[in-house]
Amino acid sequence: MQVIVTDRAGEIAEYNVAGFSELFSVLSDEMKIDALCGGCCSCATCHIYTDEDDAVKLSDCDENERDVLDGLLHVQSGSRLLCQLASKAEISKLNITIAQAE
Ligand code: FES
Description:
The chain is an alpha+beta fold. It has one domain: Ubiquitin-like (UB roll) (Roll). The chain is built from two helices and five strands. The protein has helices at residues 20-29, 63-70; strands spanning 2-6, 12-16, 47-50, 79-81, 93-98. A five-stranded mixed β-sheet has the order 2-1-5-3-4. A hairpin with a 5-residue loop joins strand 1 and strand 2 (12-16). The longest helix has 10 residues, at 20-29. The structure holds FE2/S2 (inorganic) cluster. FE2/S2 (inorganic) cluster binds at residues 35-37, 39, 41-46, 81, 83.
């Protein structure tokens, strides 16, 4: 999966990863996301924005993720937590933007 990531400074980077867990690891290793809870859906430091066109390919937002997102200031229609993302259809290319820090 090719992922185009726009970070908080507006820098764009491209990654080729096998899936979301690898993407989460890469972005937390590079500190593009803080991932303070390690992917337990509690810190929201992995808040990202996804493109509307990609939404149908992504797993649905469950109640826990929705509860965490509801507590954030900078939520938009494409807001998701990267640590909770999975695909429900094959994804060859995805655009994400790292959300503003809270
Ligand atoms: S890493 Fe903490 S909610 Fe995703």
